[in-house]
Amino acid sequence: MKTVHYTRILLWTPIILIGYFISAQIGFKIAFLNSQVSPVWPPEGVGLSSLLLLGPVAIPGIYLGATLANFYNNPHFQTAFIIGIGNTLSSYVNYRIIKRVTEKTDPLYSTKDLIYFLSIGTFPGSFISAVLGVTSLWYWDFLSSELYFNVFFTWFSGEMLGFLIVAPLLYVWFYPKSKLNLDLSKQLELFLWIVIVYISGSIAFSDEWPLLFVPIPFVIVTSIRFRQFGATLSTVVLSYTAVTLTIEGKGVFARRDASGLSINDSLIFLDAFLFCISGIAYFLVTATRERERAQETSLKSLQVLNELKEKANEELEQKVLERTAVIEEQRIEIEKQLDMAKRIQESLFPQKEIVPNGVEILFKNIPMMKVGGDLYDIVWRHDKQELGVFICDVSGHGIPAALLSALVKTSLEKWKEDPKDLKENLESIRNQIIPNLREHFVTASLLHLHTDSGALTFARAGHFPLFIIRKSGALVSLKPMGRIITPIFDILAEEEKFQMEKGDLIVLLTDGLTEARDPASLQMFGEDKLLNLVRDLRNQPLKEIRDEVFQSVIHLSGGIQAIQDDLTLGLIRYTGV
Q1: Hey, what's the torsion of the CAs at 332, 334, 339, 345, to 10 degrees?
Q2: TM segments (predicted)?
Q3: 3-state secondary structure 197-263
């Protein structure tokens, strides 16, 4: 096994070294500010694609190619040695991130994988390479301190473009299982579209006409016609044209200041443009590939079904009947388990009626299935005249969402002990549940009310604003900042305060109420309609308001069996102590 491993290293190292060296010379041709700083660094595309195609066996070839290319361009061993390390680390770090978050090597396999590639699969490695490379040039006096950050930005953006543009091209065209089988006419058509992309790019980046939009439809058509092959090739051609002409001071992105052409400022806008264009092309490809895979799966399923029909006989019919009986037994058992799960989930909601001083409070939850992902809880501390309310909505439906809502319930202990610090409690909830979220997310809100004074504090994590309908009928919305609870981003919640007055009505809800749809017209119930309904009924008993809201939503949906999401509504009327 080790012999095979070493054989692969010996085989691929010279190939990767040569490819890296050649691509480096291309990058050096358009270098500026410093002979080793290029606005586009194609070798990073070579390095990342080699790792994606071959794995870690490509590391020696990448390092040797990077060190040799930089030494050849600037015969100084120390800088070439460190820059080679930076170039190798940048490709390897991005490779490990892509492998970790996507569990695949093809950045254009699916829309989800593409989002990961564009967001976190290029930035870290580019930053590492820029820090090591620019610092080494500065340390050995190849770069003045005044130009450090200009060169750093150029180096960083060049690495990013190498990863974004060149790596997908090389991966797609050299991946052994991805074959472009085209007859001569199709090959000529692809060549024609690439020529058109080049010509339209040259026109778009000329100084004669403001026609920046011209290449976009041609890139789109090429991507749709030839999938990942057309998308990667057309974006590389357009990027090359755009970069070379912009560096020459042509086109709308060529920014000038008092000293003349500002390359760094130009690249800021150019990089954004190229990112958008390549993103559009890549997203078209991933969406098309996902649809084709779904169609292939459906076709295979249909073929299997036809084969089963052709082989049908009495024995098969008997087996079908037997299997149907088993399925019915399983269905009955699942129904029993769902009933038990429903009883368990109902126990997560407050079991005793809570009657705080100074407020009337009423909640109701109807899950889409027997169990759901909505949850609310209430804390009343009589000694301090404090009311705490929690409401959340777990993404998804059914048992998975119900299990996650149970997990959320267990994370509320700190909040129940001290419901006053809303931001800290939201972070505590997130820290306890994120190991089990994976692809799910949670929106949540926390409310704290001093019932004796009417002082209200509200915080949220991506949930609805807090709606307050004043006794006069005026609507107040509290919208403090706070992101949804996911494993990726912090909540960054803020608190917003409000002074309640006697007769004010608080409305808490989940999106199942506002997003309920008419099956015929697909018109949503909507936030405005719900709030107007509550406002018109604000002086009625809370039970009548609640019943009227649920009756209206269920009627619009076509009945209780037709609702498409969990429904939760909370009403709190401040009556004063």
Answers
A1: 180
A2: 12-33, 45-64, 76-93, 114-140, 152-176, 188-206, 226-247, 267-285
A3: HHHHHHHHCCCCCCCCCCHHHHHHHHHHHHHHHHHHHHHHHHHHHHHHHHHCCCCCCCEEECCEEEH
Task: Give residue 41's identity as a one-letter amino acid code.
Answer: W
Pairwise CA distance, residues 528 & 475, whole Å: 11
Phi-psi region of 132 (alpha: psi -120 to 50; beta: other; left: phi over 0): alpha
Written as six digits, the tokens of 218 are 């041609």
Q: Kindly give, in sequence order, each residue whose CB lies less than 8 Å from that of residue 134, ignoring residues fewer than 6 positions away.
A: 37, 143, 148, 151, 152, 155
Q: Are strands 374-381 and 386-394 parallel, antiparallel or unpaired?
A: antiparallel
Distance, CA of 253 to chain centre: 29
Question: Which residue reads 């769902």 in tokens?
Answer: 338
Q: Length of the chain in residues, anyone?
A: 577
Output the six-digit token pair for 331: 């269905």
Average of pLDDT values for 454-478?
95
Which token pair is 373? Answer: 């992902």
**pLDDT band (50, 70, 90) for residue 151:** confident
Closest CA to 42 of 61, 63, 66, 59: 66
pLDDT of 195 strictly over 70: yes
Residue 450: CB atoms within 10 A of its CB come to 17
- Report the C-alpha gap between 330 and 335 in whole angstroms: 8
Tens of pLDDT, residue by residue over 255-311, are: 776 666 666 667 767 777 888 888 888 888 888 888 888 888 888 878 887 777 777
- Which of 288, 305, 270 lies closest to 153 in space, CA to CA? 270
Beta bridge partners of 466: 478
Q: Kindly state the helix (H) or strand (E) to which residue 445 belongs, with its residue range.
A: strand 442-450
* φ, ψ dihedrals at 541, nearest 5°: -60, 150
CA distance 388 to 369: 28
- Residue 42 near residue 26, CB atoms below 8 Å: yes
The number of angstroms, rounded, from the C-alpha of 478 to the middle of its chain's C-alpha atoms is 27
> d(Cα 71, Cα 76) in Å, to the nearest integer?
6
The H or E element containing residue 386 is: strand 386-394
**In sequence order, what are the beta bridge partners of 476?**
468
CB 275 within 8 A of CB 164: yes
Residue 174 phi/psi, 5-degree rounding, is -110, -5
The owner of tokens 């088993």 is 326
DSSP letter for each residue of 122-161: SHHHHHHHHHHHHHHHHHTTSS-GGGHHHHHHHHHHHHHH
